[in-house]
Amino acid sequence: MPSTLVHIEHLSVDAVSDGESFPAVRDVSLDIHTSEALALVGESGSGKTLTALSIAGLLAENLRPRGSITFHGREVVGLPWTERRALAGSEIGYIFQEPMSALHPILTVGEQIEESLKAHFTFTRRERADRVRELLTTVGLAKTRDVASNRIGQLSGGMRQRVMIAIAISCGPSLLIADEPTTALDVTLQKQIMDLLMKLREDMGLTLLLITHNLPLVAQTCERAAVLYAGQVVEVAPTRELLGDPRHGYTKALVACSPVLDDTRRRLPTVAGTAPWLVDERALPKSQWGHHDLIEIEPGRWLRGRDNMGGAA
Amino acid sequence: MLSYLGRRLLLLLPTAAVPLLLVFFMLRLAPGDPASILAGDQATPEQVEALRHELGLDASLWHQFTVFCRQIATLQLGDSHFLAKPVIELIPPAAAVTLEVSLGALLLGLALGIGLGCWAAFRQHRLDGGVARTLGILGISMPNFVMALLLILVFAVEFRLFLVGGWVPISKGLAPHLRTVGLPILALALAEAGGVSRITRGAVLDVLREPYVTTARSQGIKEGRISMVYVLRVAGVQILTVAGLLTAGLLSGSAVIENIFGLPGMGRLLFEAVQRRDYQLVQGIVLFTGLFIIVINLVVDLLYAVIDPRVRLGAQEK
Fold first, then answer.
1. CB pairs < 8 Å spanning A and B
2. Burial of B313 (0-12, 13-18, 19+ CB in 10 A)
3. Averaged pLDDT for residues B261-280
4. pLDDT tens digits, one per residue of A122-163
5. Tens-place pLDDT, residues B117-162
6. For residue B100, what are the domain limits?
7. Taking CA atoms, what residue in B is nearest to A88?
8. What is the CATH number of domain A100-205?
9. Which of A58, A163, A223, B81 is least enclosed by beta carbons within 10 angstroms?
10. CB contact, 8 Å: A148 with chain B?
């Protein structure tokens, strides 16, 4: 039995605006095992990012988490930020989707990496500068002295994401959350960045939580995958089984949408609707897919509602 | 940085010429004849005419203009007709008073305004943040002369901490000096702080929504440090722009305040010079004020380059 790094139990996130509250994440329970790569899959608005932000404690003020998340056995939901801060960066590294907007426009690359080091270590100026160059080398950047003195606007897209990764791993975290790390990049860069993440994972013994809607990417990189739909986990399984033998109706629909190399279909099928529950709460799936408990149907395979094993939308 | 500075300095010359041209022609278009004001009610037309000739005011407008240009080019500002003293001697003592009051008000107003604005922004959803925001609006809404009268009532009349008016130079001791400049500075600063706090609050709230602030939190950087290094640095560019505009406004604001508090500053000097149609003195003061505002703009532009080095880089790429 693998040890558990993150244990999420009955996590809900309420989006509050103008006194009204809407459940954006509903009753998510999920374990992330130490040293595994787990994919969080689902369409936009399904609650992937909010679940990840909840783990890292980065939810905006109008998003209120309920339930429980333990990290290394320690409860982190409701933990005051002063204590939370000690985990951020040092234990949990976060890679955001758009490095251009997620990195500071005026501070140099070196200064931004150094801020992490200043927050968690008592290095001398010299040690920090050395560590910055070491980190930039680790993420595959050359001419580290130049890069460190550059601002983010002076770098190319791929370099920016490498800098983002350098910041995320700067303090040697045990969990790395990568929120669509390759969505903003073209295909060749996507592969390079994913290769880098996989290499870092191996070298540093990282646990990786990969948020994506790219199923082929999941197949190549992650041992397990969890499918989110309408703020709920609908299916969790080893990646191979999940993609080869999807059980939940939504997962089936999702897998059917992915193109394969020798595809003879003239048109790819689509999943009906675009997160309709975000516009109208009445559109939340009730009898069809929702309102069932997540149950373990075989060792390691979890499914929400046995009767959901039927047809796709 | 040096080439940036050089380019900025070159641009100063045409910028300085415009207000000078304007004031030269506007003065002469304005009704009222300096010679007859100077000669007094009892003077005969012949005496007025003689005086007009003496002052060079009977020459053609074009001739007067060439004389004016020559004066500017040789940095000779001429004599005040009415006070019978060189303009160059009249301006510095008055300018010292005005600069002390304006710069004092600028620094105090910036400190109060930025502090209040940050407070309102960082505690946006709390009661005290709302109070800070309301104070800022109060500062904007109240004209500085109303503020001045209120301050006089409270601090000079009621508590007798400051003098109602008048001027004691700093050479007569710091404490008596502060009792005369304290209220004028406070009156100008409070009005300025209102505007600065609004801009600061808006700018800080904008930056706080930026994804890179979330990234900074994900790095575990302390909130205070995020505010100073990540937020204020970006918001500072907007605040600086407003501070530059406000500084120019302070000069005109101080003219009103100088009259209320009876300070011998440039505002009062200018007011009196215009009433007497003292052409040379008005021109001298406008030249000086214009140069001052231009220098402030230059300082603001240089500070942009310090706060946001991309400004400088952008200039080089061109």
1. 79
2. middle
3. 88
4. 999 999 999 999 999 999 999 999 999 999 999 998 999 999
5. 999 998 888 888 888 888 888 888 888 888 888 998 999 888 888 8
6. 91-275
7. B220
8. 3.40.50.300
9. A223
10. no
Radius of gyration, alpha carbons of chain B: 24
Are the C-beta atoms of residues B23 and B282 closer than 8 Å to each other?
yes
CA-wise closest residue to B113 among B147, B138, B94: B138
Distance CA A275, CA A262 (A): 30
Average pLDDT over residues A288-313: 64
The answer to whether residues B164 and B100 belong to one domain is yes
- The beta-carbon neighbor of B215 closest among A86, A102, A106 is A102
**Which residue from B249, B216, B222 is spatially nearest to A164, judged by alpha carbons?**
B216
Residues of B in contact with A115 (CB under 8 A): 216, 219, 221, 225, 229
Answer for the pair A6, A37: CB distance below 8 angstroms, yes or no. no
Delimiting residues of CATH 3.40.50.300 domain(s) in chain A = 1-88+223-313, 100-205
CA distance A84 to A70: 12
What residues of A are in contact with residue B207 (Cβ under 8 Å)? none
Given pLDDT bands bounded at 50, 70 and 90, which one contains residue A278?
Answer: low
Contacts of A95 in chain B (CB under 8 A): none
Residue B44, pLDDT above cutoff 70: yes
What's the angle, vertex CA B247, arms to CA B245 and CA B251, rounded to 5? 120
Complex ipTM, two decimals? 0.86
Q: Which amino acid is at A105?
A: P
